[in-house]
Design a protein that fits this description.
Elements: H1 11-25, H2 31-38, E1 42-48, H3 56-59, H4 71-74, E2 77-78, E3 82-83, E4 119-128, E5 133-142, H5 145-154, E6 161-168, E7 171-172, E8 178-179, H6 188-193, H7 199-212, E9 217-231, E10 237-245, H8 284-290, H9 296-305, E11 318-321, H10 323-326, E12 331-334, E13 337-340, E14 347-350, E15 355-359, H11 360-371, E16 373-374, E17 383-384, E18 387-388, E19 396-397, E20 412-413, E21 417-420, E22 426-429, E23 440-442, E24 445-446, E25 449-450, E26 455-457, H12 458-467, H13 477-491, E27 498-503, E28 508-513, E29 542-543, E30 551-552, E31 555-562, H14 566-578, H15 585-593, H16 617-627, H17 629-644, H18 654-677, E32 694-701, E33 711-712, E34 727-739, E35 742-753, H19 756-763, E36 767-770, E37 776-779, H20 818-828, E38 832-833, E39 858-859, E40 862-863, H21 876-892, H22 899-902, H23 933-955, H24 959-967, H25 969-981, H26 983-998, H27 1004-1018, H28 1023-1036
Parallel strand pairs: 18-28
Antiparallel strand pairs: 1-6, 2-3, 4-5, 4-34, 5-10, 6-9, 7-8, 9-10, 11-14, 12-13, 14-15, 15-26, 16-17, 19-25, 20-26, 21-22, 23-24, 27-28, 29-30, 29-36, 31-32, 32-35, 33-34, 34-35, 36-37, 38-39, 39-40
Helix pairs in contact: 8-9, 8-12, 14-15, 16-18, 17-18, 20-23, 21-23, 24-25, 25-26, 25-28, 26-27, 27-28
Length: 1038
């Protein structure tokens, strides 16, 4: 799962929200629905993990030794009273004066009369570290000293694991039915049986129970960290227990440890090398030598770099160190196999400044698999104490076309990619870096960059370790990583807010970027477990009044507050009056909030760059550019040096940090003014660094399954009108409280400003809400979403207007051969096109060709430039196939000498004055495939590879459905055609098909027909996609 913040709710959570809101919105309610609405009762229980191995611990308390092992824990589960693993709440009176019994009165003996059983009075589960770590406070009462002894033995055990469970007693199922006696027992029985062998199995089991209970069960697995008790006058004891989730171990894990020969590395210290030198280090090599045997990190760098001295006269300035050879002994054991922690390209040596680097992802893997290993009993696979998500392509961060550069190579470097400049030149950014940080998808548009492919400077790491020492000389992992990320943020121009968070449900640490990423929802691969859209949480009143979808919320309380830091206060004073022309994204966000307003005092003060405020955006742009000529020059000089990594050995990088940040701020302001000039509704490129200091807190009837950093789609039409158009809310905390009033869940959020695309969508979304009195009125609020029932079956899809009778139904269920499918698609697609064909004698794009402005050289629907078939960033096999296909075209098209530009340039960027049309070249190539057997063979090979790649991406977790698609020619052709339309359409269709499959539809004919109909309906305004779907229906004969 990508590290993108703002993901939608899990599907089962979305279904529960909708089911609850529908019941709450009903006017005519059944008896069971009334019971559900008026009986918000809940339960809670606490389960000990103590296994008694010495029976004297029992006999000293006059408790029979038969309660040794886990028997006492099984028979002394704290509930709203006390129970056992059979979930039988104790009842009745024990008059035998026994210390342990299954009665409600008499546990602990009758010395002080009949005393009640122990019981929990309340629990409060909260979050800290912005929601990453859970902390529970459990309050319970015991009624005599013996009960206290038993509780002390089982529950007041510092550091011991413990399980806290809770849930609702009457629930509404996701199908809308009411269950007054839900049958879910949680995991306590298996927990006490020892079924689970490690923490991760317990966390997985809890999540399964959340889903099984349809959000009406939750649990927390943690460790006891504190307790206190007080003695009351009536002989009872009030006890408070503190529990913290297992992810909290991150705060105490130490990094600067040395284990001697624990890791069988290629070098071991000698008696003269075993302690750090007193000499002040200067170069990276000095730092490595100083700390080579102070801790495992220093030892790693020594092992890798000490024998990799490179020749400074080398042609390439970045030399990948052979990490497989130098760090071969650093391995982790997985499924009884030794796997190297490092791969080639994880370590770099920058020759000119003579600096060493390690890839962030591999550095975290080293920490995770070698420094945090905790052997698990009865398991052959050692597990790290804490998982760290180091997936290269799943951990993304905000970036733009001018940011992909480091201002301080003493901290980090990024590169390994190429892009086209505005003049058409290809720029290589430290080309010899093997792991790409960013990659280009279109002119001046970059995908988010890969966090794990940031290369950290080794001396920077060692210096951070030294400065992060506590009073005992130890370095805590969490604080160290956060300090590293702060400096990385600065080095990359201060546009990002990288930080580490923990998912306490999976015990996994992840690095996120809280700067919003435009189009982030499109980066999340289809997942049938995630709702396509988070349901709107209805805040008050009735919605969709008078319809079958009438609903009302189950919100108990809402509050809003600002959370303003000191650095934000200074931005407020500027942003309040600058109205979008202030430098920097943060202040621009405040300016958007204050658009059309100005203070009475100091209203004439201008906080923009120039003192004379221009009247128009055009004048502002001219002034901005004129005032920054020296900045352009200085930045350009640094940029050219960085691209080649051509620095002096003792380069002073501190001078560049402010330079890069000022240039990025200039580009941000320029974009803001350009938007104003073009008349866009949103003046600024709304993508504020970090979170916006406005948060909403929502208290709901108790519900589980909602996770931190998901998107809270709250109806906020009750807020002032400016809020809904600029903010979205990201969940940072989910807390639970259970007391005599039942279970309530409070969701805390921070807000982030919408990207431009999101804001436009949000402002155009209509909603129908009725007041609590039933008076219907149109206002901003929930979106009903797209309905897919307007077309009942394939017969409702019109016939393909260009279809010829002989071709109708040519695709049979048995037509699964890729070559035949490719030839069939050629019948649908057009012929040959080259960008120069669009230009007239005046070197301007001709009127009829403007639609091709964003297209490159194309044959049979395959776009050479837009498809990125021959660019460096593509996989080697994809490049080989692309070269094979387009190389064959270059032989005969007449435009082969333009191939270098054709690989990467689209029509609007074609240098037609230098490379004009060639009269003897191809004008149009017929789509009759049989005349071009070699080309069609190469096309088939190329698209078969692409089809398999994308199918694995979207259906890899549903192998049975994937096999069904491959085995039925009609269903396969549907998806083969979607591949030509674009992977975005394929992704959309795959989500729907997986839902149909999981819903029980297995017939390939019905799957094809229903999916065609679904796509035709949601793209009813897209004529090209509609015709494509009509063609598929016609050619498959459905």
């Amino acid at each position: 799962m990508p590290n993108i913040i703002g993901e939608n709710f899990y599907k089962y959570v979305a279904e529960q929200v909708n089911a609850r809101q529908k019941v709450h919105g009903k006017r005519n309610r059944s008896a069971s629905e009334l019971l559900y609405l008026n009986s918000k009762t809940s339960w809670v229980k606490l389960i000990s993990s103590v296994k008694i191995t010495d029976s004297k611990r029992l006999t000293n308390l006059n408790i029979p030794s038969t309660y040794a092992g886990t028997e006492l824990a099984k028979n002394f589960i704290l509930f709203n009273g006390t129970s056992n693993t059979e979930n039988a709440l104790f009842s009745g009176i024990d008059r035998t004066n026994s210390f342990v019994s299954k009665y409600a009165y008499g546990i602990g003996g009758n010395e002080m009369g009949l005393r009640p059983m122990p019981g929990i009075s309340s629990i409060d589960v909260k979050n800290r570290n912005r929601g990453s770590i859970r902390e529970a406070t459990v309050n319970f009462k015991v009624w005599n000293r013996v009960q206290l002894e038993i509780v002390d033995l089982l529950y007041l055990r510092l550091g011991f694991p413990i399980l806290l469970e809770w849930g609702n007693s009457v629930i509404v199922n996701n199908d809308g039915t009411i269950d007054t006696k839900p049958d879910f027992r949680g995991i306590s029985e298996d927990f006490l049986k020892g079924t689970y062998t490690d923490d991760y199995q317990i966390l997985d089991a809890i999540e399964k129970q959340r889903k099984l209970s349809q959000c009406n069960y939750d649990a927390m697995y943690g460790r006891v960290v504190n307790f206190n008790w007080s003695f009351n006058k009536n002989g009872s004891y009030d006890i408070t227990l503190k529990i913290i989730s297992i992810g909290a171990v991150i705060e105490s894990l130490k990094l600067n440890i040395y284990t001697g020969d624990k890791f069988d590395t290629s070098k071991t210290p000698t008696s003269t090398e075993s302690s750090p030198t007193d000499t002040e280090p200067v170069s990276d090599n000095d730092w490595v030598m100083k700390f080579k045997f102070s801790h495992e990190i220093g030892k790693l760098f020594y092992n890798v770099f000490s024998s990799n001295k490179q020749n400074n006269s080398a042609e390439v300035n970045i030399i990948p160190v052979d990490s497989i050879q130098q760090a071969a002994a650093y391995k982790r054991v997985l499924n009884n196999s030794s796997i190297p922690v490092f791969q080639d390209g994880d370590f770099l040596h920058a020759v000119k400044p003579d600096k060493y680097y390690i890839r962030l992802g591999s550095f975290l893997n080293f920490i995770q698999y070698l420094m945090f290993l905790a052997n698990v009993k009865n398991a052959g696979d050692p597990k790290p104490i804490l998982k760290i998500d180091t997936d290269k392509d799943g951990n993304l961060m905000y970036s733009n076309a001018t940011q992909l550069i480091s201002s301080n190579p003493n901290v980090c470097i990024v590169g390994g990619y190429s892009f086209s400049s505005s003049t058409g030149n290809v720029i290589d950014v430290i080309k010899s870096i093997p792991s790409e940080f960013g990659w280009k998808i279109d002119n001046d548009v970059f995908k988010p960059s890969r966090i794990m492919n940031i290369y950290l400077n080794t001396s920077f790491i060692l210096q951070q370790l030294e400065s992060a020492k506590d009073d005992n000389g130890k370095v805590a992992f969490f604080g160290f990583i956060q300090s590293v990320l702060i400096e990385v943020n600065k080095a990359l121009g201060s546009l990002n807010s990288l930080e580490m968070v923990i998912n306490d449900s999976t015990n996994t640490a992840t690095i996120i970027d809280s700067t919003p990423i435009p189009g982030a929802d499109k980066l999340i691969p289809p997942n049938p477990n995630i709702a396509e859209k988070s349901p709107v949480i209805y805040s008050y009143g009735y919605y969709n009044n008078g319809t079958e979808n009438q609903a009302a919320g189950f919100v108990r309380d809402i509050s809003i507050q600002t959370k303003i830091s000191n650095e934000t206060i200074s931005m407020l004073s500027i942003g309040a009056t600058a109205n979008g022309s202030v430098v920097g994204e943060d202040a621009t966000s405040f300016s958007k909030w204050n658009a059309g307003l100005e203070p009475i005092i100091n209203s004439k003060i201008d906080y923009a760059i120039n003192s004379e405020k221009p009247e128009t955006p055009e004048e502002k742009i001219n002034t901005l550019n004129n005032d920054n000529q020296e900045l352009f020059k200085s930045y350009g000089q640094y940029q050219n040096k960085y691209w080649k990594m051509d620095f002096d050995k003792n380069e002073d990088f501190s001078q560049y940090s402010d330079l890069v940040q000022r240039y990025l701020e200039y580009k941000q302001e320029l974009q803001s003014l350009t938007n104003l000039q073009s008349g866009k509704k949103i003046a600024a490129p709304i993508s504020s660094k970090g979170f916006f200091p406005v948060g909403v807190s929502v208290t709901l009837d108790g519900i589980s399954g909602i996770a931190i950093y998901q998107n809270l789609n709250l109806d906020i039409s009750f807020l002032p009108s400016s809020y809904p158009t600029i903010l979205k809310f990201i969940i940072t905390g989910v807390s639970h409280k259970i007391d005599k009033n039942g279970w309530v869940t409070t969701i805390d959020t921070v807000s982030t400003t919408l990207t431009e695309e999101e804001a436009v969508v949000k402002e155009s979304t209509p909603v129908s809400r009725a007041s609590s009195r039933g008076e219907s009125k149109e206002e901003v609020g929930p979106d009903k979403g797209v309905q897919s029932t307007s077309l009942a079956d394939c017969n409702a899809i019109p016939s393909w207007s260009r279809g010829q009778g002989k071709d109708k139904g040519r695709i049979k269920a048995s037509s699964t051969d890729n070559a035949f499918l490719t030839q069939t698609i050629i019948l649908i697609e057009g012929g040959y096109y080259h960008p120069v064909q669009a230009y007239g004698s005046d070197n301007q794009i001709k009127k009829g060709f403007k639609v091709m402005a964003a297209s490159g050289e194309t044959l049979w629907g395959i776009d050479r430039a837009a498809g990125a078939w021959q660019v460096q960033n593509s996989p080697p096999e994809r490049i080989r196939l692309g070269n094979q296909f387009w190389g064959e075209i270059d032989k005969y098209s007449g435009y082969g000498k333009y191939a270098d530009n054709a690989k990467r340039l689209i029509t609007k960027n074609w240098p037609v004055s230098q490379q004009p049309p060639i009269p003897t070249a191809w004008k149009y190539l017929s789509n009759d495939a049989k005349n071009y057997p070699v080309l069609t063979k190469y096309l088939d090979q190329m698209m078969s590879y692409e089809f398999d790649t994308v199918m694995n991406r979207y259906f890899g977790k549903v192998p049975d459905l994937k096999s069904k698609i491959y085995s039925d020619g009609r269903l396969k052709f549907h998806y083969y055609r979607l591949l030509w339309n674009g992977v975005g359409f394929m992704k959309k269709a795959s989500v729907n098909l997986i839902n149909l499959w999981n819903g029980g539809e297995k017939d390939p004919t019905k799957l094809t027909c229903k999916n065609l109909t679904y796509m035709y309906n949601i793209y009813s305004k897209n004529s090209l996609i509609k015709e494509s779907l009509e063609a598929v229906k016609f050619l498959t004969g459905l």
